[in-house]
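Re: Re: ligand-bound prediction request (bumping)

Still looking for help on this. To restate: I need the protein modeled with zinc ion bound, output as structure tokens. Inputs repeated here so nobody has to scroll up.
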Amino acid sequence: MGNYLALVNSKHKFNVEDVEGFSYIEYEKENAKNEDQFPIYLEEETYKAFMGLKKELTESNINLKVVSGRRTPAQQSDIAKQIYEEKLIQFKNSGIKDSFAEEKAQEYVSSFVNKPNESEHHTGLALDAQPSRIKENFLTKLQNSFINKGDSFSLKVARKIEALDRRVMNRVVHSKLEKYGFILRYKEEDFAKTGVHSEPWHYRFVGRENAKNINRSGLCLEDFILKQIENEQIK
Ligand SMILES: [Zn+2]
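Reply:
Sorry for the wait, this slipped through. Here it is.
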């Protein structure tokens, strides 16, 4: 059976044995921004847990959508290429020299996109999600009123309000992850251990019991697994 504590990072490459026996379910896409272009699959238990979380969040006026699930190493490399091209254009348009733009785009990709075989998305146990409001609330009303004004200052304010509401929604979502067996995988304070900056959208399914134990330990997955191995050796 597959391993719900599978560790995949730059030092521990993806091991197909970790996913042996896993089944995958296709997630019905919801036309979200930055959604994967290929069909989104999640490991079966991960899928069920996510759907439970999603259902509960509707009570908090939040529609949580999966924008990325399982990615094969080949898809991961396509994503890296695509992001590189996008960033290259963006940096070139900002008026800096072409050679420097290439360097900056490369730098961006290496710090924000996992290399093929180094992403836990390969397991189908990790997903990227995006919360949005089901019904307008005070903040979305305020945001829309600024969007309607249409001038650049109002649009800037509208974007700030949107970011604020996303932080509010993230806090609600994050508080419910453990109950469904997910952990918030990449926190800024763990950067030295994980090599990944804060990703409030990336959830990792480990199962309820593990999620509880990991959160109680205060450790990131890397250190939690290391401690487990140490404990085994002591026994
Ligand atoms: Zn992710």
